[in-house]
TrEMBL record:
Ranges where the Rcc01698-like C-terminal domain occurs: 471-566
Signal sequence annotation: none
Protein name: Phage portal protein, HK97 family
InterPro entries linked: Phage/GTA_portal (IPR006944), Portal_HK97 (IPR006427), Rcc01698_C (IPR056490)
NCBIfam families from the UniProt entry: portal_HK97 (TIGR01537)
One protein family per Pfam: Phage_portal
Lineage of the species this protein comes from: Bacteria, Pseudomonadati, Pseudomonadota, Alphaproteobacteria, Sphingomonadales
Organism: Sphingomonas guangdongensis
Domain of life: Bacteria
Length: 717
């Protein structure tokens, strides 16, 4: 019985696979087995070890983005996954990653297995169906077939084997053997002062030779009195007929320095490292270390890292909804000079002053389009600062034997852009306001957009990091109406229309919701949901709502059809710090993707300080004091106290605890240094309500409001 129909349908079309025959040819006086080559080449040779570490450590430090980036970056038993896989792929040609599940259908961690302990278990036609990992007498079988593989195999090209890749260590074994032999030879020369010190010559007048006893006695005396470092330089007393003849090696006999350097360059060549970076003499391929380091990244680190990430992404595609992985090349310090080439500055006649920041232009003789980020007019000369708009590129995903990647063509669509300021969704205490930007496309093929920000009304624009992670977003089709932030709303219903069919919403249990799952910005209200029901096409219904999260209860019920709906997923938002002076002003954000043509997408937002001011107080109660005045009491909330760890009080994050109170319709303010205040009768004259605000470092909180006089006060009157 064939459980996987796709494999059954194509099994007859697959070619038979096989292993290369293990010949017993002689490769000279160097080891053939992998473990022996590791000891000689990696553990005992400084050039090979440095070359491997240079590539592997750079690969491990490469900035990674994508849905599985956090999983790949996490250490398992202290192991740096990417660095380990890169080293194994270089040395052995094969890298194996065990996928350890969490018991609930997800991935708990990834662990790189030692490649020499892994063997392929093939079917009758030679296609791998599982892998066996053997340590001592224990053997574990890891399934490689099906939608949830337990092991991921990434291998380099091997023209002689269908199952196992070919590493660089074997190709470098000859040069490593020569380099190690030269090292040992030079060490022996140093021990002998780089020459045989000399010879004792017995020159008897009658031509007689030393007897055996005389020769043995002379040898013993020489070793005891003159050999070794402790006797260096000691004068020698010779008997009759003996004389000392000094000896030395010729320069040709001592030319091992050049031999070692040549072998070291061959080792660097085998691993793809510029010899200049290893401190080897006689190499002038690159003008300086910066160029050599750039070549290392372009020719060795990036291709190797892309191979590893593509294999991991494909292997995790059945485990994760978003298993994408990629290197953020724009964040690689060694390639910063290449990024600078994306910038340009041109001067034009003042008659072109109708151009403004944000406009898209083309330059004669330069490929692609350019965005104006700033301009100056000086001495009737217009100077434009431009940034190149990158074109979309298609990267081919690597495939292992037995797997086929088949993606249908997806429309890119126009960029959908939302910018907003919200309280931090964790307990981060911000010192300056922060803008959050979410972007996606109207089609599932949208991948990225370049964004720019203006804080001066569009006079100048500053580039932002590229928007690469698509958020789940859409519009509100049915408003939930008013609701309470203190109880789970089991009656209100939200219906939303997502941007395209590739976006989905999920269910979560109350514990997951309490931990932060299913959080969305609906209009200006932060809310969460437990149940998501697909209604067909791109329409979804959300129920069992948690309303007014993070102090946004003031926005409950203010939504209308067509308002924004943005799911706040980790990694899907671009968070941009703003200066304090931006509070109270509007900032503009423009973005341009491949599907947007010449018209960038623009949005603006009022910076209210919602990300830095404290939340409003709660449980405000006002009671009459019998003399025309009243006493107000309330409970303080904190920007860092949402978890409520001690169950008693929220931590005070502001510089001091202080509040201001005001009665509606009355301009008189009352200040308080604690959560209680007395309101004189004069301040309540003609009032219809009482409000209190907490004073924060960067401004006042939203007011907590209660009606006045209360119903009890009216009945007493």
């Amino acid at each position: 019985m064939k459980l996987w129909g796709r494999k059954s349908a194509r099994e007859d079309a697959r070619p038979a696979l096989g292993r290369a025959s293990a010949g017993a040819g002689v490769m000279g006086e160097w080891p053939r087995s992998y473990e022996a080559q590791l000891r000689e080449g990696y553990a005992a040779n400084p050039v090979a070890q440095r070359a491997v570490r240079l590539i592997a450590q750079n690969a491990g430090a490469a900035p990674i983005a994508g849905g599985a980036a956090a999983l790949v970056a996490a250490r398992s038993a202290g192991q740096a996954l990417l660095e380990t896989l890169a080293a194994q792929l270089l040395l052995h040609g094969n890298a194996y990653v065990q996928v350890i599940g969490d018991g609930a259908g997800g991935v708990a961690e990834l662990y790189a297995l030692r490649p020499e302990r892994v063997s392929v278990e093939a079917d009758a036609r030679g296609w791998p169906v599982a892998y066996r990992y053997k340590v001592g007498e224990r053997t574990a079988r890891l399934a490689a077939d099906g939608p949830l593989p337990e092991i991921i195999h990434v291998r380099s090209f091997n023209p002689l084997d269908d199952h196992y890749g070919l590493g660089c260590l074997g190709a470098a074994a000859g040069a490593i053997a020569i380099h190690n032999a030269a090292t040992r030879w030079n060490k022996a020369l140093l021990d002998n002062a780089a020459r045989p010190s000399g010879a004792l010559v017995y020159d008897a007048p009658d031509g007689a030779a030393l007897s055996a006893d005389q020769f043995a006695r002379l040898r013993t005396e020489m070793e005891a009195g003159f050999a070794g470092a402790a006797n260096a330089g000691r004068p020698m007393l010779l008997e009759g007929g003996l004389k000392w003849q000094a000896m030395s090696l010729t320069p040709a006999d001592m030319d091992f320095v050049g031999l070692k350097a040549a072998a070291a360059r061959e080792i660097a060549l085998a691993f793809g490292v510029p010899p200049m970076l290893l401190g080897l003499p006689g190499d002038a391929t690159y003008a300086n270390y910066r160029e050599a380091n750039k070549a290392l990244w372009r020719l060795a680190v990036l291709p190797l890292t892309d191979t590893v990430l593509s294999g991991l992404s494909q292997g995790l595609s059945g485990w994760l909804e978003d298993a994408s992985l990629r290197v953020e090349v724009d964040r690689v310090p060694a390639l910063s000079e290449d990024r600078e080439r994306l910038w340009a500055q041109v001067t034009l006649d003042w008659r072109q002053a109708d151009l403004s920041p944000g406009d898209r232009v083309a330059l004669a003789g330069e490929p692609g389009s350019w965005r104006i980020v700033d301009w100056t007019l000086d001495a009737m000369v217009l100077t434009l600062d431009l940034v190149q708009i990158a074109r979309a590129t298609m990267s081919a995903a690597a495939a292992t034997s037995g797997r086929v990647l088949s993606d249908s063509d997806a429309a890119i669509g126009r960029t959908l852009l939302h910018a907003f300021e919200i309280p931090p969704v964790d307990d981060t205490v911000l010192a300056s306001p922060r803008l959050s930007i979410a972007a996606a496309g109207s089609g599932a093929g949208w991948r990225s957009a370049r964004a720019q920000l203006s804080t001066d009304g569009g006079v100048s624009f500053h580039p932002l990091p590229e928007l690469r992670s698509a958020a789940v977003l859409g519009t509100l089709a049915m408003s939930p109406g008013a609701g309470s932030s203190t109880l789970v709303d089991r009656h209100a219903v939200i219906e939303v229309v997502l941007a395209h069919k590739g976006m989905t919403l999920t269910n979560s249990d109350p514990l997951a919701v309490a931990a932060g799952a299913n959080l969305a910005l609906v209009g200006d209200e932060l809310l969460q949901w437990e149940r998501a029901e697909w209604l067909g096409d791109t329409r979804w219904r959300l129920t069992r709502l948690w309303r007014g999260r993070r102090g946004t209860e003031w926005a409950c019920g203010q939504q209308a059809a067509g308002d924004r709906f943005v799911v706040l997923q980790p990694g899907a938002l671009l968070e941009v710090p703003l200066p304090l002076a931006a509070i109270g002003s509007r900032v503009r954000v423009i973005a341009s993707g491949v599907g947007d043509g010449d018209a960038p997408i623009e949005t603006d937002v009022l910076v209210s300080g919602a990300s830095v001011v404290p939340p409003s107080p709660v449980h405000l109660r006002v009671t009459a004091d019998g003399a025309g005045g009243a006493q107000a009491r309330w409970v303080r909330r904190s920007r860092a106290g949402w978890a409520w760890l001690d169950g008693i009080d929220a931590p005070l994050v502001e510089e001091r605890e202080r509040y201001v109170l005001r009665a509606d319709g009355n301009a008189q303010l009352t200040a308080s240094d604690g959560p209680v205040a007395a309101l004189p009768a004069a301040s309540l004259a003609g009032a219809s309500g009482v409000q209190v605000q907490q004073v924060g470092l960067q401004g006042l909180s939203r007011p907590a409001i209660t009606p006045w006089p209360t119903q009890a006060t009216k009945e007493d009157a």
